[in-house]
Amino acid sequence: MPNSIDTGSDVLYVTPTKFAFSLLGEASRSDILQKAVKRYEAIIFSWNETNTPEGPLLTTVMISVDSINDDLKFGDDESYILTISENIGTISSPRIWGALHALETLSQIISWNHTHHYYNILHAPYLIQDSPRFPWRGVMVDTARNFLPVDTLLSTLDALSFNKMNVLHWHTSDAEAVPVESKSFPDLAKKGAYSELGIYSQEDVQRIVTYGLYRGVRVVPEFDMPTHNYAYGLGVPGLILDCPISHPIETSYYHASFDPTSESVYKFLEVFLGEMSTIFPDGVMHVGGDEVDYRCWNETASIIEYMQENNITSFPELYAYFEKRVHAILGTYNLIPMAWDEVYTSAKSVLPKNSIVHVWRGDDTLSKAIKDGFRVVSSSDYYLNNGFDFGGLQVQWQDIYNNDPMPQGLTPDEQKLMLGAEACVWGEEINHNNIEQRTWFRAGVLGERLWSNQMGSEADVWVRVMKQNCRMQQRGIAATPVENMQIFPRRDLRRVCTPFLIPGYKQPDLRKL
Amino acid sequence: MPNSIDTGSDVLYVTPTKFAFSLLGEASRSDILQKAVKRYEAIIFSWNETNTPEGPLLTTVMISVDSINDDLKFGDDESYILTISENIGTISSPRIWGALHALETLSQIISWNHTHHYYNILHAPYLIQDSPRFPWRGVMVDTARNFLPVDTLLSTLDALSFNKMNVLHWHTSDAEAVPVESKSFPDLAKKGAYSELGIYSQEDVQRIVTYGLYRGVRVVPEFDMPTHNYAYGLGVPGLILDCPISHPIETSYYHASFDPTSESVYKFLEVFLGEMSTIFPDGVMHVGGDEVDYRCWNETASIIEYMQENNITSFPELYAYFEKRVHAILGTYNLIPMAWDEVYTSAKSVLPKNSIVHVWRGDDTLSKAIKDGFRVVSSSDYYLNNGFDFGGLQVQWQDIYNNDPMPQGLTPDEQKLMLGAEACVWGEEINHNNIEQRTWFRAGVLGERLWSNQMGSEADVWVRVMKQNCRMQQRGIAATPVENMQIFPRRDLRRVCTPFLIPGYKQPDLRKL
């Protein structure tokens, strides 16, 4: 739901032969906007229109932006104003990202009439003044547990944009695999990926990042450390501790850890993270930090020795030392650091104040980190893989929707530290066959919840969620049904989730747009 | 796992240019076998073979069957003997269904070597004597809550055959929709389906039934009654009771019920079920019978009156009366009746002894129905949609595997009444996007458990389940991963679940084979 919406009671008609977007001034020089209007023309006009009714038309939508700067960064202005009246619609926004959101909104307002086979707009005229409640609205995908083809990631970027979400958090590596190509360390992916075919080349990465850029979606990479990274050691010897007692690598490789006392580890990270910051230009880098297992450190003589020599009296202190070194490296590349909440819990004293704490262990930690002055992104309630690989209960969309992401008891200043949330889709039981199904429609409900605090009645929410679900399916996203079709009160609406059955329906070819 | 398997320690090689199936005698006149060998050639030889090694080959597999009778019925012999030795393999079976299973087994024994790029057979020679432990191994799909395209059902039939399963239980209708075309009552689907596009024409049904036949999979239709059938009333007035007090049709249509006192209902069923028995030639017909809600009957004056006039003293008695009439109709068409276990619980006195009781409410009911002399099919532990629309926990594949479907405490004669099981995939949150993912690989684990009681070690089971999962994916079934790829001890094996990444991999076009 938009932040603010004024509507009327008129009906306008739209017909592709008498409709055009018009990019005004600066906007006409933005390649992103040029491509976006083509894309949305294909999305909007994908039905087999056979009738052009008599009546007032919407013929032109004029788009203007204050700046066509296409450097997509955290915190960019995403606001827009959309007006629709007879003949003329207008989209205006400070940045191109707002205009992209406005196009999405427009595409949801122009509807195809299944009975009369024409396009129309109900409740015109419109004045929509809109901007997101939270600046961070994301989905996390995991390409370490199973390889996800490039096309699957592109599809996720499309679906994010359809839900006005703006972050793809790419958990690139884990104990199981390191699939992203590094030019500095070619063996890293060559030996650390599942196979030589399961590698993202740097061209692949660029394609993914650019595809996101053109949809206003940032790609935030994660390189998880000091644990969850056994596979780094396959290509670069000397990084991973050998801890044969507590977790021999053959059977419990997922406990393996970087050697926090090894200078060559920090040398490696300096080069590796520097290179990664060039192929992932977002400016925020996630360095994991979750689930460190101290047993390995405890049984390694060189570590105990190092701690004694350097007056490090506990493992959490050693862990903080590691994080301090890693964050110093991020600092040299001017990266905003992001890490899972263990880094805050165990090492907050060394965390730079511009760190983003990614909370996955409960809302309590969320409030605490905010009270300590850190910016936070919340994921505790949004593990969409729950109920599957991790057992337990599936996260229901109603729970996502009914849960206000903003924690209770914060001052207005503290509330500003709450950046938003990410739905996480951990990959143990996820592949290209089910990631879209597992993610959508539920992540879209989170997207809506993060966009605005306008809720609407329960019945209204059902129909809106269902419509958005069908809309994603119309555009080629393999969303799963909210409920049976009967939820739609009108029989003709029940067809929209099976557009492939409808003669003449042309699914937009999003890869080419 | 086969029932009985003897293996050796030789390696044989297989190369498509020097390999042929040979249909002997009668077998050569079976269209089903002719198509099956073509299909399995495409399935087996789908990799990009570049090397033909020196060494002993398997060059011919001779197939003979005692009978090419292609009337696929419950209880048909499915046994086969498969031998593989240098040069010659043999498949022999009483019926063609056994030969189809043997081809599947052979396709799993011939493996592609990812390193050397050739096909080989390890552990030759083979002598496999095989037959299923249970004759009923199925999956139930629901086309009433959401429409499933014909292609989705064909895909399910393929996947069933890959897992040596032999029943597609098609829950055709429910309160929400009646999507199968009836020539006798054309308005039934025209008005009772979600839309005029969400209808299975009789040609569609024939295509589905025939596709199953060619894979040895029976299609058992279900027409649920006397409740779960509101949509029947949309096309044929007078069938459904109007019960505005307890469940007005606008809001609780799923409680609607046939009028059990109306002769026109039985007239309708006589014609309708007769017609359905011609387009669904299986010989078993499932007539539902679950979740009858007596509140509606209780508030209908004509029903109370009828009960008084006919000395029917309770609603269960009226329910039994309805079932008696329905089963009498099935009897006139020589159909084996099948129904959900409520029919057994509430109306067993009227149930013909040849009835199959489909148990969904616990293993207790299963044993009781068997002790009462009924044949049973078990589904209580196999609701693959659990954890999704019905909340609660997902059914884990390990639970399916570790659970012996045979109830404890039965005599050998009673054990014969345990026909097998079906994995149920209720459709509230299922569509063409996620039905394969929700069903497979888990239903395949049930298939394996129903086929034989050979278990193997736990580690062995993991690898076998994973391999079968990847095999399905190679053949185009959108199965979800068992775990991350690391479970495969050999790195080259980890590619098999992403065959589309492998240069030259040709996915078999199963629709044409």
TrEMBL record, chains A, B:
GO molecular function: beta-N-acetylhexosaminidase activity
GO biological processes: carbohydrate metabolic process; glycosaminoglycan metabolic process
Protein name: Beta-hexosaminidase
Compartment(s) of residence: Lysosome
Similarity comment text for this entry: Belongs to the glycosyl hydrolase 20 family.
GO cellular component: lysosome; membrane
Superkingdom of origin organism: Eukaryota
Main location per the UniProt record: other
Keyword Signal: yes
Residues forming the catalytic site: 291 (proton donor)
EC number of the protein: 3.2.1.52
Keyword check for ATP-binding: no
EC class (word): hydrolase
Limits of the Beta-hexosaminidase eukaryotic type N-terminal domain: 2-109
